[in-house]
């Protein structure tokens, strides 16, 4: 979701970035303001004025979203949570957290800070709008102020929809967490509410389409689907994270792996190791040190009649940052590495020696077992 980000500027120690999707969103906002919202609400102005109002309006919206995200980030920092990056993407932004909030109170204040900021901005722009009318400022000025007052109200309302991981979803979860004193149950309940909400939003979309409001209906469906998938993903990643909280690699690794000397041929490797031990990956040693790994996939890349002519050392993958991990790393870091590299097995090392292998399969089995016990 946050892969194509472009850094914009640094403020109060946070880096503000935008997702590449934002360039399209920004264009859509300017275009729909210039062609739809402003001419519809404030007729008889020139085309040029509408475009100018649209650009100023879009910039004001952009600044409002940044203020919303900064309120989350500042509260998080006040409670000692690490947040370095604020990224804007479709439907607003995210303050990227390195860790989950440690108590329901922190989560509550952190989550509610954003919508409160949007609400205050809405009141501020609304007041400025009335003031501008009183002192007789021209329509292009009052129009943009009115738009910013309305859009911030909508932002506050949208973010308070209790569909995890929106702010409203987090507020709901923090209250359930506080009431039940169990974050996992609270997360599960909050996600169920989220799914019900997102399905209802999609349903409203269909009703709108049937009632001939095609564009409006499409928006509801788009937002509902977005919330639906986000709620699903964030629940699962949360359960995963919590299952492994504080667990280290050495709790789960397969210790004492069978190592293969690098100077034997592939034929010898297949006969004496691959057929004898039920493993898909073997550490390779040279002069009693781990120099790399060899997997079934590497062997399959070489035709079997050539196996006599290659040594294991020749076709192994050298040990590197991607295929190995040190024993005192957390499981969540190992999962992140597997996710990034697409590898399902990692070599576990300690002081340069291979002390085990950790596999995605073992980790998944552990989660399945844990969930079955706790359901
Ligand atoms: Zn927010």
Structure at a glance:
This protein is α/β, with parallel strands linked by helices. Helix content is 60%, strand content 16%. It is elongated and about 90 Å long.
Verbal overview:
By secondary structure, the protein is α/β, with parallel strands linked by helices. It folds into two domains: 5-243, no CATH class; 249-374, Roll (CBS-domain), CATH 3.10.580. It has 13 helices and twelve strands. It has helices at residues 21-41, 47-78, 104-134, 139-159, 167-180, 183-210, 214-243, 249-252, 266-274, 296-300, 312-315, 331-341, 360-374, and strands at residues 5-11, 14-19, 83-89, 92-97, 254-255, 260-261, 281-286, 289-295, 317-318, 324-326, 345-350, 353-359. It has a four-stranded mixed β-sheet with strand order 1-2-3-4. A four-stranded mixed β-sheet has the order 5-12-11-10. A hairpin with a 2-residue loop joins β11 (345-350) and β12 (353-359). The protein is elongated and about 90 Å long. The two termini are 30 Å apart. The model has no long low-confidence stretch (mean pLDDT 83). The site of zinc ion has 5 residues, from α2.
Gyration radius from CA atoms, angstroms:
28 Å
**Please, how many domains?**
2
* Small molecules bound in the structure, each named once: zinc ion
Range of helix content: 55-70%
What does the largest sheet look like? Answer: 4 strands, mixed
Note the run of SSEs as H and E: EEHHEEHHHHHHEEHEEHHEEHEEH
Question: How much strand content do the residues show?
Answer: 15-25%
Kindly state the number of beta strands: 12
Give the overall pLDDT as a whole number.
83
Helices, by number, come to 13
